[in-house]
């Protein structure tokens, strides 16, 4: 089904927010304060007291935020007022504007922004009001399921961290009195290739991935297809090839970024900004060591020991001197059993929380296929 396309200017008025510096906010208030990225605080007064949509115009440009109770919108965002409430459902407009990808209309200057006239020229499909409400209700339900799944994933991660601490204790105080060994004595540590070995012109698209610190995200390896190397270049650097059970660690910038290399990443290249740790014993010990090296205690240690005036930088000596409590084989096996069960439950939640599923429903909704 095809619906008429309308410009935002024909259905809503975009008002500029009003500045409210943090030091002038009354934190005992109950009215939400919104910026371009969402809620940034509370205040005792509201700029508006009716439901609205907030659209980021500076900073998080094009971000669309639902504000059912109004509040105070600061000057980095617009807030919307419907021109005709009997022809447009606000909740439908929320989803339609999110689908419109407003960030594509960003004006690139020293501070990226969304011009109001450009925003007004954005078009959305506008079905009859009853159909708008039906679509909004369907997307609300889909979004609620997605959020619950995301919460379940977070709970699984929190539970696993709690189990880790309960079974192995705080890595700093070592209350379980595990034997302590220097990391260099239980593993091989390899810094990524020097700049003289791997140049900018060596990078190609669609080749063998390399892993730099920015490719280590929330304990997972997330490569970029445009930052890879050829098979020929890969063959020239065999000492930097990753193997299953290795722990890849960022050695520049943010400390504590680690991930275990799986079958999928086996053979990929350790990037110049990373290092890898190859435990003498892999398997569950790699998982334990990764958790240990990702802990806040080790992150703090690395931050205090890292070198470099402009950017923190780790070397082999700093990492090799990390003191590692080595648990018993029995404790490691018990943790492995629990971890597998938690990951299995998490996998189910991930399957149903993927953005692509919600996006698919959203696309069908705005094409009139629901």
From TrEMBL:
GO terms for biological process: DNA restriction-modification system. Pfam families: Methylase_S (PF01420). Keywords: DNA-binding, Endonuclease, Hydrolase, Nuclease, Restriction system. Residues 2-153, 175-328 form the Type I restriction modification DNA specificity domain. InterPro entries: Restrct_endonuc_typeI_TRD (IPR000055), Restrct_endonuc_typeI_TRD_sf (IPR044946), Type-I_RS_S_subunit (IPR052021). Its EC number is 3.1.21.-. The keyword Calcium does not apply. One of its GO terms (molecular function) is DNA binding. Belongs to the type-I restriction system S methylase family. This is Restriction endonuclease subunit S. It comes from Thalassolituus pacificus.
């Amino acid at each position: 089904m095809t619906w008429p396309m309308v410009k935002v200017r024909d259905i809503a008025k975009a008002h500029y927010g009003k500045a409210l510096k943090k030091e002038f906010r009354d934190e005992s208030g109950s009215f939400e304060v919104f910026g371009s990225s969402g809620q940034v605080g509370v205040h005792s007064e509201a700029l508006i007291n009716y439901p609205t949509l907030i659209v980021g115009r500076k900073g998080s440009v094009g971000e669309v935020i639902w504000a059912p109770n109004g509040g105070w919108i600061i000057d980095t965002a617009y807030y919307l007022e419907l021109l005709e409430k009997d022809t447009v459902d606000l909740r439908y407009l929320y989803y339609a504007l999110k689908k419109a990808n407003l960030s594509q209309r960003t004006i690139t200057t020293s501070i990226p922004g969304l011009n109001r006239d450009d925003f007004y020229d954005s078009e959305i499909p506008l079905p009859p009001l009853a159909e708008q409400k039906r679509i909004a209700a369907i997307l609300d339900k889909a979004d609620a399921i997605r959020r619950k799944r995301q919460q379940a994933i977070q709970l699984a991660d929190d539970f696993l961290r709690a189990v880790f601490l309960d079974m192995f204790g705080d890595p700093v105080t070592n209350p379980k009195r595990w034997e302590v060994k220097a990391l260099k004595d239980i593993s091989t540590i390899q810094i990524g290739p020097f700049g003289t070995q791997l140049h900018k012109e060596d990078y190609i698209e669609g080749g063998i991935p390399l892993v730099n610190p920015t490719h280590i995200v929330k304990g997972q390896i997330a490569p970029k297809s445009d930052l890879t190397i050829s098979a020929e270049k890969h063959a020239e650097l065999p000492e930097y090839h990753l193997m299953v059970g290795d722990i890849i660690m960022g050695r520049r910038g943010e400390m504590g970024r680690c991930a275990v290399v799986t079958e999928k990443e086996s053979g990929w290249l350790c990037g110049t900004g990373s290092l890898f740790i190859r435990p003498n014993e892999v398997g569950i010990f790699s998982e334990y060591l990764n958790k240990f090296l990702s802990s806040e205690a080790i992150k703090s240690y690395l931050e205090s020991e890292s070198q470099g005036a402009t950017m923190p930088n780790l070397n082999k000596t700093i990492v090799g001197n990390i003191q590692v409590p080595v648990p018993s084989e029995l404790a490691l096996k018990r943790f492995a059993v629990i971890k597998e069960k938690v990951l299995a439950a998490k996998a189910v939640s991930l399957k149903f929380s993927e953005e692509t599923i919600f996006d698919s429903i959203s696309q069908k909704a705005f094409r009139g296929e629901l």
